[in-house]
Every structure is written in C-alpha cells, then in structure tokens.
Amino acid sequence: SGGSSGGSGGAVTLGFAQVGAESGWRTANTKSIQESAKTAGIELKFSDAQQKQENQISAIRSYIQQKVKVIAFSPVVESGWDTVLKEAKTANIPVILTDRAIDSPDKSLYKTFLGSDFIAEGKKAGQWLTKEFGSATGQVNIVELQGTTGSAPANDRKKGFADVIAADPKYKIVASQTGEFTRAKGKEVMEAFLKSQPKIDVLYAHNDDMALGAIEAIEAAGKVPGKDIKIVSVDGVKDALTALADGKINHVVECNPLLGPQLMDLVKKVAAGEQVPARIETQETEFDQASAKAALPQRQY
Amino acid sequence: MTKHRLFWPVVALLALLLGDLIASPAFFSIELRDGHLYGNLVDILKNGAPLILIAIGMTLVIATRGIDLSVGAVVAISGSLACLWIADHPDGVGATLVAVGLALGLSLVLGVWNGWLVAQLGIQPIIATLILMVAGRGIAQLISGGQIITINSAPYEWIGSGFVFTLPSAILIALAVFVLASLLVRRSALGLLVEAVGGNPEASRLAGLRSARLTWLVYVFCALCAGIAGLMISANVHSADANHAGLFIELDAILAVVVGGTQLTGGRFSIGGAVIGALLIQTLTTTVYALGIPPEAIMLFKAVVVLAVCLLQSPAFRRKLRRRKARPAAPAPASAPEKVEVTA
Amino acid sequence: MTTLTRIKGYRPQQRHLPILATMALLIGAYVFGAASYDAFGSGQVVLDLFINNAFLLVVAVGMTFVILTGGIDLSVGSVVALSTVVSGDLMQKHGWSAYAAIAVVLVIGALLGAGMGALIHFFEIQPFIATLIGMFFARGLCYTISTEAYSIDNPTIATLAQTQIPLGGELHISISVVVALVVVLAAVYVLAFTRFGRTVYSIGGNAQSAMLMGLKTGRTKIAVYTISGFCSALGGLLLVLYKSSGDPLNGVGLELTAIAAVVIGGTILTGGSGYVLGTVLGIMVLGIIQTLITFDGTLNSWWTSIITGALLFVFIVLQRLVTRRTR
Amino acid sequence: MTGIRKEFPGVLALDGVGFRLFPGEVHALMGENGAGKSTLIKVLTGVYGVDAGTITLAGTAVSFGGPGEAQQAGISTVYQEVNLCPNLSVAENVCLGREPRRFGRIQWGPMRRRAEELLARLDVHVDVSAELSTCSIAVQQLVAIARALDVDARVLVLDEPTSSLDAGEVEQLLKVVRSLREQGLAILFVSHFIDQVFAVADRMTVLRNGKLIGEYRTADITPVELVTKMIGKELQVLEDLEDSGPTRAEVADAPVFLSAADLGRKGGVEPFSLDVHAGEVVGLAGLLGSGRTELARLLFGADHADSGSIRVDGETTNLRTPRAGLDHRIAFCSENRKTEGLVEELTVRENIVLALQASRGWARPLSRRRQDEIAGKYIKALDIRPANPEALVGNLSGGNQQKVLLARWLITEPRLLILDEPTRGIDIGAKTEIQRLVTQLSAEGMAVLFISAELDEVLRLSHRVVVLRDRKVVAQRENQGLTADDVMATMAEGAVS
Ligand SMILES: Nc1ncnc2c1ncn2[C@@H]1O[C@H](COP(=O)(O)OP(=O)(O)OP(=O)(O)O)[C@@H](O)[C@H]1O
Ligand SMILES: Nc1ncnc2c1ncn2[C@@H]1O[C@H](COP(=O)(O)OP(=O)(O)OP(=O)(O)O)[C@@H](O)[C@H]1O
Ligand SMILES: [Mg+2]
Ligand SMILES: [Mg+2]
C-alpha cells in the first residue's frame, strides 16, 4: 500500500486525523467516515491519534507533506490548533472540522465545522428533566455521572444541564462524580451513590455507557431503573436504545456519529472550491421509549 | 509484631477505614438484600477482586526484578474474547466454560510471549511488556470490532457479579487464586528461587538456578491472573469494553505491590502484602465516592492519602519522627564518656 | 552493521553498541519509508520529527538523568500538564507577561521535582511511589486550577510558536527544536564532563558504593529529580508553544512514552549505563514509527496500535540481536 | 574513639570499645570474623551513627554524617568489600569525586594519567579506561586502595585490603604503607594474615565479640599470644595436614573424574588440557589476572568455551550453563561473594540451601525441617556467627559471608568442588578448619580444584599444582617436594612441565 499521492489522478485525497478509538461511538464515527469515503470515491488517508493532540498535529503535518487535497479532523481538544492550521493554510489545503469545534478566533483557518454541540445536548437533557418533573412537588434529587474529568464533552454536558436546571431551586444535584465514560466506572460510582444517598430521583449520565453500568448497580440494589430512579443520558448507542425500549432508561439525547456522508459532500464541495456554510449541525434527535423502539431495527452502532 | 512484614500495610488499611468510619458512619453498614450482603465493604471486596488478582501476578513478576505493563491489555483481550464467544453462542454453562477456556488460553499465550521476550531475548521487562501493552489494546479492539460487546449470560455474569453464600463470587475467586498462589509459592521451592533470582540474578545463575524458566513462569502466571481479572471485569458489567477495560490498571497493581512491601528492585516479596495493597487502593476509590469528593479533587486526595500511607510505612520517617520527639525529652546520651582521649 | 564496522577496522566499544545499532535501524527505517511513500524522503519529514517531539525530547532528557541513577519519574506527564495549565492560568486569566509566567512555571517544576527527590532521599520512599504521588499531586493541581483547557493567545507565545527558522530550501525548524537541542547538549556535557554527572552514573552503578566512596549521593539524587521536574516544566512550556493551549488532560501516559524512549535508546532501567544521545534516538524511533503509520494512512484505529507494537518489537529485537551478535 | 557502642537489631556489634590511633604509626585492628572490626571502621567514618561513645579527631570531638565528611576531615578509607562502581572505568573509580577539573569541566586525559600513576605505585598496570567490571576482584581491590591513597589524608583506614592479593602485591602494598607512615600518616590496618600484621604494624588492638580485649605493642606480643587473645583460647595449629590426605600414588590410580581437552575461550584462557582425578586436590597457581578464575569458570560451565571439550566420567558433555555443571555434580564457589555468590537479602539458611534446592528443582522443596537441619549443621561446623539461620546474609561480617557461600556448595556433595579463593577474609581459626575440610573431603573421594592467592595454602593442600601465566597453562607439577620458590619461578617466567 502507499505510494499514492494527493494531486495525482482524478480522485480527491482526504487526510482525516481521528481522535482515537476510545468508544463505540467513536468507532461508529470512524466506520461511517471510512465507508462513505469509499462510496464517494474519495481516497482517504486515515490516522488515529490515540487520544493525543500531539499525534493529531503531527498527522496533520504529515498530510501537509503529502499534499493531500483536503484535511479533516475531529479535534481532541478545542484549543491549540493555530500553528499547524496556519501551515495548512500556507500550503493551500482547506481544513474541515468534524465533531468538535476549535476556539481559534481566526475563522479563516478552517472552511467549516460539521458536528454537534455538547452544551446543547446537556440542555436537552435538562429540558427533558424539567418537563418530566415539572409538576413534582418537593425537592428532586439528581445524581450525575460525569465524563472524563477535564474533557470537553464532560465539561459542556455538565454545563448545559446545570444551566437549565438552575432555573428552579427544587432541582438539586446531590452527588456528582466522574464515571470516566465507562460502564465499569459508571456501575462502581452508582453503587457508592446508592449507599451514600438516601433518596435518588434522577440519574443524569454524560453518556450511555455509564448509564448502562449504573442500571446494573441499581438493579443489584433491588431498585427498578426507570421507575424508582429515572435515567437520562446522551449518545444514543444501540444498547441504550434497547434499555430505553425496555423502560430502564427514560430518555436519551442523541449525539450522532454517522457524519461520513455529510462530510464527503463537504469535502467534494470544498475541493471544487465551492462556498460552504461556516457551521453545519449534524442531524440529531432525542429518543423516548416509543421512538427508540422504532429506531432500534436500523441502529448500526 | 511491628516487625512483621504486613504490619504497616495493615495499619495503613485500618487507618483509612477508620477515617471512613469517622467521616461517614454509614460506611460500614452491611445488610442482607436479595439474599446477598450489601454495603460499601462488600463493594470494596467485589470491585477490588480484579486488582487483587493482578497484584498477585504482578508481585511475582516484580520479585524477579521485572515489571509487566501489559496486564491492562490482557484484561481487555481476555474479556473481549470471552464476550465475543458468548455473544455468538447460545448462553449456557457450556458456552461459558468454552469462553473462559479460550480467554485463559489466549492469556497464557500472551504470557508466554512476554516471557519469551524477557527470558529468552533478554529485553528489559518494561519495554518487552510495553510492546504488548500497545499492541494488545489493538488486538482487543480487533476482537471486539471496536464496539462494546454486550452479553446476556447468567453463568458468565456470575464470575463478576454473582454471589455464593451471600458473598460476591469475584472475591471468592480472587481468594482462591490467592490461596493457590501462596501455597504454590511457599509450599514448593518457587518462592525461594524467585526471590533468589530477583535478589541477585548472577549469583542465582551460578548457583544453578534455571532463571529463564522461572522468569517465563512468572510472566505466564501474571498474564493468567490478568486474564481472570479480565473475565471478572467484563462479567461484572455484562459487556466487554476493549478500550477501557483495565486501562491504567498496571499502575494500580504496581502501587498495590509496592505498598504491600515488595521492592521494585526485586527479591523478597509478599503476596499477602499485595492483596492488602490492592484492598487499600480499592478502599481509597470507594472512599472517594462515598465521601463525595469532587472529581477535580480526587487526584489531590489520592496524593495526600498515598503519601500519608507511605510515610507511615517508611522506617526512615518513623526514625526521624522518633528522634524529633526524643530530642527535647532526653538531650544527653545515656552513657556519657568519662574522659576525653586525644587521638590522631 | 557488523560487516560495516569490520571493514573500517573499527571495533565499537561494547557500551556504544546499542546506540550504533539504533542509529542503523533508524536509517534503515527512513530508507524504507522514503522508498515506500512519496514525500517521506523530503528532509522536512526528519525535521518534523524534531518539531513534533521537541517537548518530549526535553522531558526524556530529564528522565534520562533519573533513570541513570536507577530511579524512575512517573510524574513527568502531570508536571507537563501542570505547566501548561499554570501558563494558561497566569497569562490568560491573570494577564501576566509570558516571561514572568515562564519563570514561575520553571520554578514550580523544579520545586516539585525537588520535593519528590527529598521524599526519596530523606524518607527512603521508593522512587516509583514518590513520583506516583507527584503524578497524582500535579494532575490534581491541574484540575483544581481549571478543568477546562485554556486557549493561550499571548502575543509573545504566538510569536515564539510561529517563528520558523529556515534551514535553506523548504526546510525549517521551530524555536522549540533549538531549545530542545540546547537542552540535549547541556545534558551531554553535564553527564560527561562534570562531577555531578559522573556521580549520577556512579549512583546507578552502585548507590551503596557511591556513598562509601564519599560522593554526595543524597544531594545528587535530589538534584536529579529536580532536573527532571525542571525539564518536565520546560517540556510543558514547549508544549504550550506547540499547541498554544493549557490543558489539564495534557500528557496523560507521557511518562511511559518518555521512559520507553530512554530505554529504547539503550539506557538500562536499573541505572548506571546509558547516554542522552541514545534517548534522542529513542525518541526518533518512536517518532518514525508513528510517521510511517501516518504516511501509510490505510490503517484503522486498532491496526494502528497493533502495527505500532509490531514495529516497536521489530526495532527492539533487531537492536538486541545486533548488540548480541557483535559481543 | 571511646566507649563506642553500636547495636543492630538483635546483635550488639560493639560494646564499649575504645581505640586510639597516632600519627606516624600503623595500627592493626585484630579479631575473629564478626568481632566488630568493620563495624568500628564504619562507625568511625560516619556510615553508622553510634548508640553511645565519642570520637575525637586531633583533640576535637567529631561526628561524621557520612564517608564524604570523614574524607573531608582527612580520613581515607578502603572498606572491606570492594565498594566501587562496576559500570565506570578504572580511572574514574580511582578519581571519582576528586577528578582534575578546569572551570568545572572534568579533564579526562589528566584523570587517566593520575589513575595510572596511582596504580603504578602499587605496581598495577591495567588499561585504566576499561570498565571496572571487567577486572578481577584482586585488581578491583587494588583500585580501591589506589583510590584511598589519592586523598590528601591524615588517616588511612584499610579494612582487609590484602584478602585476595598474592605475595607480590602484598609486599608492594606494605611498602607503600610504610612509606606513608614515614610521612606521618596514621594508618589503621585490618587483616587476618598474622604475618602481614607483624610485618607492618606498630601496635594492635584486639576485639572479640564486639568487646575490647586490649591494646598491645607489636614488640611485646607473639603471634601465638595474639591469636589466643583473638579467639579466647589456645589454637592448635594444624601442621600435620599434609599427612592426612591420600598419597600421590593413590590419587593417580583413582579414576579420572573430569578431563578437559584443549578447552579455551577467546579473551579468557588459551586452550588447555587438564585431568582431575577423584580424590585429588589440584591447586591453581598464578599471578593476578593469570586466568585462574577464567579456567575454573570454564570447567563449571559459568562461561561457555569456544574450543575444546570436557569429559566427565569419560563421557563427553557440553557444559553450557552452571546448571549443567551442577547436574554433573560440579560445584563452583566464586571468589566474588558479593556479586556472584550471595543473595544478600535472603537469610543464611536460604543462601545455604540455594544450590541444593536448585538442583532438586522447584517442585521438590526441601522441607523446612531439613533446611534447618542442614543450616544448623554448617553454622556449627564452620562457626558462622551470629549462629542464627534467619539472619540476613547481607548483615553478616565478610568472613562469615564467605563461610555461608562455602556451606552452600558443600551441602550439594559435589564430586568436583572448585574453590576460588575460599579463604578470602576468613580468620585463621576458620581457615585451618576449611583446609582440614578440604583434606578430609578429598580423602573421601571428592576432587577439589583449589585457587588461592596464598601460595603456601595451595602447596599445603594440593596433590598437583597447575601454574598459569598470562592466561595460559604453563606447567603442571606433582606436589612432591615442590617449594614455593619453584612455583614462583614458574609463575614468573614460565617453564615446560
Ligand atoms: N547492618 C548490620 N545489621 C545487623 N548486624 C550487623 C550489621 N553489620 C554488622 N552486623 C553484625 O555485627 C557483627 C560485627 O560485624 P563486622 O562486620 O564488624 O565484623 P568483622 O570484625 O569486620 O568481621 P570480618 O573479619 O568477618 O570482616 C557481626 O556479628 C555482624 O553480623
Ligand atoms: N590485566 C588485566 N586487565 C584487565 N582485565 C583483566 C586483567 N587481568 C584479568 N582481567 C580480567 O579479570 C577477570 C579475572 O581474571 P582471572 O580471574 O582469570 O585472573 P585470576 O588468575 O583469577 O587472578 P585474580 O583473581 O587473582 O585477579 C577476567 O575477566 C579478566 O578478563
Ligand atoms: Mg570485616
Ligand atoms: Mg581470580
């Protein structure tokens, strides 16, 4: 393999620098990109940064060396991209951001952003909660399973949720701990919550996996997830939708990883020098029990 | 009594538990729920079981002056393989046994691989096992297709979250391995030979020890322990997560071993100490959750507690402390010289 | 390699063998890359190795000192993160000048290192544990300062970061590379030509003997960890230049990469034997493995890990075989 | 030093010991193994703190925080075990901490020259840029001494500096010591060689079991009196050793146990042939670095031979590893007990049973009772002190460590026992005991290969003497009427046997 270079031939070469393969969500994201590149006839140079920004930067550098037509990447973190993106700009290679935004004030460094808004996801979860418990009297005790400390989705989903529930003092987060986005930790932390908190009404999990782990802890404690403790989480992976269909989860806010087709459209447009909007949100919904049941058969990940 | 090797690790564990009791009296409450014991202490045992297992294996590796960074990857591989098999086959005890056999067989092969690099090629252990640490997670992802494999098999789940006589099965498995390892090591000559190889490899070689074979053995044993731990971790959450299962567990395991009184420079080892160390670390984790320490502060909290534990265990620290205390009380040495002789 | 040296009639010293072997392997890998992938052969790819790994190089140099004494420093990743976060905090939140922030960061790094060294020397806590405590502590400090990444737009930092030093043709390096090379040269000098440097080796050879020989082992041990802390802080600053950001999640797992680089470079983990130059080569090995994979560009995530491991294996085994055969 | 008391957990190493040292004298510190000599020296130089007592240097009370401070105060010490850095060059080991510098930069050239000069004073000529670990233990010992001589010292402390040196080196060293005495240095000298002590010391202090027995002028005491004071009872000197062994004729009739043909190793020893009969004691004689150890290692399988073959009991075998040697019931007791012999953090018992256990394999452990039995027996037979099988070997005195190592090999009941400097650092009582043991074992049919820097010892015990020079076997002599001078001559210039 190898030996092929950007400009040669008719095919557009896309250099894509992925964050890593840290979750099923991410794997679905990667798969979607790889598959839709194939169908779109785009030659894909793919690299996996193993969750390290340094690696992503050096991958982008090597794409510049290889003179690919377009560079796309999902930033590991929001900041710190100016230097390398300036190099890309100097080399006249357009850049597309996927999944996460960057916070550079210089908007000319990239052509467009395609992805989701973590704060909005947190807000949606909060809005569901306020609707669900709108009529409740007395304090609503919430426990929160945070993502990896310091990571953007954790920070933003926490913030969006907190902003919404701050409106009413009856919503109280009685315990909030990191479950590191994993089932095992989600379960372990929930086990401890169940012992230290006398009354829990709602669980808000920053991703599905932690919610799925927590469900097992709740069941082991002899409680009924979805009834005794209501659960809302973010992502919308298949397992979570199944649990939602079974009534063990009450609400799932979608964060869609399947942005391959949308990305390839954009790549073609950008490569052809067409104008594209500066920000494109992926199509995302929210699921309740009914829509989960409906969506399950086609769920790929 | 204070001379016993396990004295200070046990004191440290008890001190931490005492701290918990003071901070949250409910910490110790245990009740019977759904026919099994339920409480924080039970959680510590159950969730600590995988770490205990790995720490046991790691102890022997460290005793030979080695280190095994690949245990986390082995955890992921073993769990993924077992869950893959179970997901593809109708559940039942038979499928579970096959899955367990496959996973442990593969773990064994991985241990042989590590042993080969260290004992046969003579590569430094940290690098030799780093290879599998890096590649192993990839292998696990390859097995699982990068997705979390969710399973539904009561017999398999029993390994991680079942109960026997109201006690978590995980801790019983860990206990069994502990007893087995202790017997194997102390009832046979393995313990002595391992300590000799770790204490002075060249002298051991000249004393006629087959150190390559021993080295091989400990890496295989360690990988097997990690394999069992992998089964446990995946069974506990009914799913295999190739990306996160056992992530950074090698650090915790090494910490457990060292807190348990085994030196990283090899030689004398204490499996019991490693078990205490692992329990200490798990207690610390559970404490963090039970006391509601905010996520931002967990690391600081851990730093402080581990520092306190290590200082408590450090003979040098105790010596200095004692001297400081003794100084104002008795400034003059007991037997002062009567006359000063002029010399040199 | 064997034949090459024989032709010249030059017998390399036993202790230089790992370095020569690594160098030969690196050249081999480069030639392979240049033959397989377009644009790999351009000199800039080599320079990019330095540009991308400048901060890691500095950290690994500090680590080399520690490992030469037979110790280990697990705190480097966290200290790197702490340095970036503190820089971000001081410059972005408190509006400090870049130079003041840099000074403070370096002092913090050195102090943390000295603290760990003191734990190791005075209380005889094993280096692994003492620096693990340091690792927790520094990472904890990061989170307490900020759980979110700072985007650093300080003009001084921006200029430093984006200045390219042309080397003729299309080739260029960054200021970080210059800093890293200066650190490497300083370390080479210190280790080879100062009493302190030789004491470092002697402690690694046999700490007890070094003490009985009347060397200042305690002071040296503390100094070594101080150097490592300082280098980590400096590495953190280079990372700030590299990424213009201060992120509490920076450098997770970096300690292992640094240790791996040092050991691949031929330094023995039990101390007493090894060279800074080896560490530089170790970094290059890790860098070139990654570059090869990026240029290939067809591997999905898990194959990336597997191939990285496999290439690491090939490098280490070849290195091992070469050094063994010539013995 | 007055009223010095030092207690280790469970052992009272020094109990109210006083000691005086005057400028311009050589003062010998005498005592059995484990009497407390090394401990006293370590207390003096600040390695250990004292529990009680004072140290006065030139009228002022001092207390050193470590060897570094002691050195600064003008006390230069050679500790008993070779305490150098094996990973550094010879030159560095001589000069470490005092390297010639310019603007803080170490001058490597001058440093090498200085090391060469210092070693030349001891008549040692080695490549000073070679790594120390490539040097034999004797050379290492000389390097340590050269290092101590380099200091601008007022006090020179030598703890068993001669334990693995042969006569020539010892003579050279004593010459240097005398000249330093002339220069007004105070010299503290520890040795188990009574004749050396009487040759050089002006005064001596005797310790026994950590207690001060007395201080004597050399002129006022005879060797026999001294030994009596050291061990607390009369010593029967074993003059009749030679008679107790089998006669030469008997041995020649005994079957050949091991036979080496053209065995050799590049960089080690040149190919040699050697037959060892059952019940025969073969002594190896040679100067420092002549290749005795190398030869022994080849016979055991510690190193792999490049050429030649070995036959054991008439069958050709391939001794690739020490393990193979052990399986053929060959035992090798290394001269370097610290790095190649003992596992310091294990107990006396564990060290003693190690080789036996290794040969049995891990699955057939010696029962604890059996281990205690064996350990107890040899602790008694060799008078290992403290007589505690659970003491850590690292905490034993040098001589006692040597005995432990010897015990390890004796219990494997080998058919060929290779002893490389087995009496290194052992007091005379134990030395005679070991010599008696060798004679007795050979009478029982065990073949022994005996290496010692003391030619007398070799001659007393061996049936045959193999002489090496420049890593080459130059002569094999029947020990019948062989004198030390004969052997010396062969060692020095070589001869055809
Ligand atoms: N670190 C230690 N811990 C415990 N006991 C010790 C330690 N060092 C020495 N001892 C004990 O102190 C006693 C005196 O030992 P020392 O080394 O001073 O003897 P020595 O006179 O030098 O004997 P040798 O002639 O064999 O060298 C011995 O019984 C020894 O076991
Ligand atoms: N002059 C020398 N220079 C450097 N290395 C030497 C020299 N002589 C011996 N050696 C090394 O020392 C080691 C031991 O040599 P060997 O032990 O065979 O000598 P020996 O006859 O036992 O003498 P001794 O033990 O009294 O020094 C070998 O590894 C050899 O390479
Ligand atoms: Mg002594
Ligand atoms: Mg010798």
UniProtKB/TrEMBL annotation, chain B:
Gene Ontology terms, MF aspect: transmembrane transporter activity
Protein name as catalogued: ABC transporter permease
Places the protein is found: Cell membrane
Domain of life, source organism: Bacteria
GO cellular component: plasma membrane
Alphabetically ordered keywords of this record: Cell membrane, Membrane, Transmembrane, Transmembrane helix
Chloroplast recorded as keyword: no
Organism taxonomic ancestry: Bacteria, Bacillati, Actinomycetota, Actinomycetes, Pseudonocardiales
InterPro entries registered for this protein in UniProt: ABC_transp_permease (IPR001851)
Pfam families assigned to the protein according to its UniProt record, in alphabetical order: BPD_transp_2
Keyword hit for Oxidoreductase: no
Membrane-topology annotation of the record: Multi-pass membrane protein
Sequence intervals crossing the membrane: 47-64, 69-87, 93-113, 125-143, 163-185, 214-233, 245-264, 271-291, 297-317
Protein species of origin: Amycolatopsis eburnea
From TrEMBL, chain C:
GO molecular function, one term: transmembrane transporter activity
Membrane topology label: Multi-pass membrane protein
The keyword RNA-binding appears for this protein: no
Subcellular location: Cell membrane
Protein name: Sugar ABC transporter permease YjfF
Major subcellular location class: membrane
GO CC aspect terms: plasma membrane
Keyword presence, Cytoplasm: no
Keywords: Cell membrane, Membrane, Transmembrane, Transmembrane helix
Native source organism of the sequence: Amycolatopsis eburnea
Ranges that cross the membrane: 16-35, 55-86, 98-123, 171-192, 222-242, 248-268, 275-295, 301-322
Gene symbol of the encoding locus: yjfF
From TrEMBL, chain D:
Domain ABC transporter: 4-234, 251-495
SUPFAM superfamilies registered for this protein in UniProt: P-loop containing nucleoside triphosphate hydrolases
Topology of the protein relative to the lipid bilayer: Peripheral membrane protein
Keywords tagged on the record: ATP-binding, Cell membrane, Membrane, Nucleotide-binding, Repeat, Translocase, Transport
Domain of life: Bacteria
Protein source organism: Amycolatopsis eburnea
Record-linked PROSITE patterns: ABC_TRANSPORTER_1, ABC_TRANSPORTER_2
GO cellular component, one term: plasma membrane
GO MF entries: ATP binding; ATP hydrolysis activity
Major location category of this protein: membrane
Protein name as catalogued: Sugar ABC transporter ATP-binding protein
Lineage: Bacteria, Bacillati, Actinomycetota, Actinomycetes, Pseudonocardiales
Pfam families named in the record: ABC_tran
Cellular localisation: Cell membrane
InterPro entries in alphabetical order: AAA+_ATPase, ABC_carbohydrate_import_ATPase, ABC_transporter-like_ATP-bd, ABC_transporter-like_CS, P-loop_NTPase
